[in-house]
Automatic annotation (TrEMBL):
NCBIfam families: aden_deam. Its cofactor is Zn(2+). It holds the Pfam family A_deaminase. It comes from Microbacterium ginsengisoli. Residues 11-329 form the Adenosine deaminase domain. GO terms for molecular function: adenine deaminase activity; metal ion binding. Keywords: Hydrolase, Metal-binding, Zinc. Belongs to the metallo-dependent hydrolases superfamily. Adenosine and AMP deaminases family. This is Adenine deaminase. It is an enzyme of class 3 (hydrolase). It comes from the Bacteria. Its EC number is 3.5.4.2.
């Protein structure tokens, strides 16, 4: 079997994808049309051309604008699983859901989370793809509203929602994980697991990795590429045994870094860090889990053996129970 075919067929987990970005482009255009949400273009060829992370985030917010009725959420959930199975042999997925985007338009937390879980459960029955949900703190909003979001999660407990993470960025495009210390402490006190988007681009400081581990007490980290700019942080992450979710294709657009053997993700693998691979925003970056492995890992010069290790890392680092992990291995 040819190496790209092997990579595409390898059974995979995905631990880092934003729910709205698992939408298929035709559904995005259909819903935008129904609700009168203006898109930068209705031509899929130009709709998803982004200069950088900030440019992408404008469209990312618009994707949340087209999700309004319970059936919108459930359809995105169900159809997104079907596509991911076909495109990359997805077996298990964790989704970031940002309730704050929807709160601003009058949808309460259960209005969002319940239909999403309904759709994902139906997809699990039909396609055998397990899942968990991670409530995402909107980094554009205040630390107080992040605490309020965690309170909502705790007030409407669902066993599928196992942790908190983040999305979006400050208007200044800066990262300061410690801003959300209170929200993370509240989550930890109630048994929610914790991850954080850190050190994703040249605009972020490597020290965000330290803050996420030492101030937010994160169990996992998202992106974190600039850890490679500070060897002391690599030692810290190795000592903590923390896993990283990396997103090769989204990173080429958000950072402008090329996928070659000198890429920081390859460096993270060589340094012995626990690396996993995800799509981040499949619709927007016109990617899928198969492409992340075939193009992303191949172009960084990752061997077949290491690719398989990465797929298994995705099982080890998952936030599901051990019985489910055993089935995934
Ligand atoms: C992202 Cl900061 C952020 N939020 C949502 N999606 C993303 N993809 C890359 N960075
Ligand atoms: Zn992300």
């Amino acid at each position: 079997i040819a190496y790209p075919d092997y990579l595409r067929l390898l059974p995979k987990t995905e631990l880092h994808c934003h729910f709205a970005s698992t939408m298929n482009a035709p559904l995005f255009i259909e819903l935008a049309d129904r609700y009168g949400v203006a898109l930068r273009s209705t031509d899929p060829a130009t709709l998803f051309d982004f200069d950088d992370l900030r440019d992408f985030l404008v469209a990312f917010r618009a994707a949340h604008d087209v999700l309004r009725a319970p059936d919108d959420f459930a359809r995105v959930a169900y159809e997104g699983v079907r596509s991911a199975v076909a495109d990359g042999n997805l077996r298990y997925r964790e989704y970031f859901v940002n309730p704050q985007y929807f709160a601003s338009r009058g949808l309460a937390y259960p209005d969002v989370i319940d239909p999403i879980i309904d759709g994902l459960r139906r997809a699990e029955t039909d396609y055998g793809v397990g899942f968990r949900v991670i409530a995402a703190i909107n980094r554009r909003e205040s630390p107080e509203s992040a605490v309020e979001m965690v309170r909502q999660v705790l007030a409407h407990p669902r066993p599928e929602v196992v942790g908190i993470g983040q999305d979006d960025l400050t208007p200044e495009d800066t990262e300061d994980p410690a801003r959300f210390a209170d929200a993370y402490a509240l989550a930890a006190a109630h048994g929610l697991l914790r991850t954080a988007h850190v050190a994703e681009t040249d605009r972020a400081l490597p020290s965000a990795v330290r803050d996420a581990l030492e101030v937010l007490d994160c169990d996992r980290l998202d992106h974190g590429y600039r850890i490679m700019d500070d060897p002391a942080l690599v030692e810290l992450a190795l000592a903590r045994g923390v896993a990283f979710t990396t997103t090769p294709i989204s990173t080429t657009i958000c950072t402008g870094w090329h996928l070659d053997p000198s890429h920081r993700i390859r460096g993270m693998i060589e340094a012995g860090l626990t690396v996993t691979v995800s799509t981040d925003d499949a619709m927007f970056f016109r990617t899928d889990l198969g492409r992340e492995y075939t193009e992303g890992l191949l172009e960084m010069g990752v061997s077949a053996e290491t690719a398989k290790r990465i797929a298994l890392n995705g099982v080890d680092a998952a936030w599901c129970d051990d019985a489910q992990k055993a089935r995934l291995r």
